[in-house]
């Protein structure tokens, strides 16, 4: 691979080698990934210590106790952490956290769970990142591979911890949903097949509010790749295309596009997805009308999963069947019910404006849009055209809805404030007519009124079923 500082990590801590006494591995964060990493580390003979600044959930605490792994909660005891040989950090802990700064200053390697677990498996890695569509594309890809009979695990930002699966399973393939936060702490790890869906502004507070820093983070999905590997990317995404111009890649490049004929890769012709790869294979084709996932954004997601499947030389019939019978994940454009001819859609996982744009783009006209929550400095202007075309009314679900009112005043007939999921559902139901869609796609985090986006989605669904 050509040397390129934008793709290759600046510092790449090598895997630790034991010399004499047991190495001490400290894990910061006792959620799904941290507890899984602790189990794998113990299995590999490390002296393991887990530290969480918050309260550890009962199920994870029970697991740590059952495995006799030392831990602390609601504090970080520095003398028990700064003596580590290496630290596995939760993706949720920012680089600017004082403890992380002290670890860096002390020269102690800080890595992600994915980096750590990747050392202990020879499975093929299919890694999917992007600002939007990661979970759907990861789930669809896993569904296709599973249906094709491959021995495959699902992990990363989704499902059980990758590290725990490495410790307890023997999969030949993993499909991993990888966030930019995970990528930031990955160095030696390599994706055999990397998928970069899109890059749109998100989490910029973690990247000094510089888009170029966030873009560089996303492109780490391609680091360490060789000519035997593949990078699958969206040729229609402006930030991705711009980012590629200043970088070199060791992998074989496979683009997908709905506007241009790209070969090899995936493109759209007369409402038919056509996929070709570098291999001498029969091309794949499928009408977009037969896809289980509808909407323009899901054509992209299906193309990406389809290219992965063709690279792995799966049968076209299996790919078609899987793309046709896939059921989307909970809280992502999830159809809840049809009541009095009104469709209710739960898209609670849409915690940024881009995700809400994708949701609206896939809807017919006549939408009652439920928006709001913790606003991360959102720029709602990108929704203007779709709101004017498709939205009849906006129902706000949050403690402070001022910015939503300011953003959409005059574009819709009504903007109504609500303070609970049952109230939002009740108001939306009475605003809607037969044939309309009530869409919960908040564009905001959920922490003002709910525990998390799952809780928000669950309360929405419960309220719908009680109408």
UniProtKB/TrEMBL annotation:
Pfam families from the UniProt entry: Mur_ligase_C, Mur_ligase_M, MurD-like_N
Cellular component aspect of the GO annotation: cytoplasm
Stretches assigned to the Mur ligase central domain: 128-307
EC number: 6.3.2.9
Statement: the UniProt record of this protein carries the keyword DNA-binding: no
This protein's UniProt keywords: ATP-binding, Cell cycle, Cell division, Cell shape, Cell wall biogenesis/degradation, Cytoplasm, Ligase, Nucleotide-binding, Peptidoglycan synthesis
Matching SUPFAM superfamilies: MurCD N-terminal domain (SSF51984), MurD-like peptide ligases, catalytic domain (SSF53623), MurD-like peptide ligases, peptide-binding domain (SSF53244)
Domain Mur ligase C-terminal: start-end pairs: 331-444
One Gene Ontology term from the biological process aspect of the record: peptidoglycan biosynthetic process
Catalyzed reactions per annotation: UDP-N-acetyl-alpha-D-muramoyl-L-alanine + D-glutamate + ATP = UDP-N-acetyl-alpha-D-muramoyl-L-alanyl-D-glutamate + ADP + phosphate + H(+)
Top-level taxon of the source organism: Bacteria
Annotated compartments: Cytoplasm
InterPro entries xref list: Mur-like_cat_sf (IPR036565), Mur_ligase_C (IPR004101), Mur_ligase_C_dom_sf (IPR036615), Mur_ligase_cen (IPR013221), MurD (IPR005762)
GO molecular function, one term: ATP binding
Pathway the protein acts in: Cell wall biogenesis; peptidoglycan biosynthesis
Binding site for ATP: 130-136
Known role: Cell wall formation. Catalyzes the addition of glutamate to the nucleotide precursor UDP-N-acetylmuramoyl-L-alanine (UMA).
Family membership: Belongs to the MurCDEF family.
Protein name in the entry: UDP-N-acetylmuramoylalanine--D-glutamate ligase
Gene that encodes it: murD
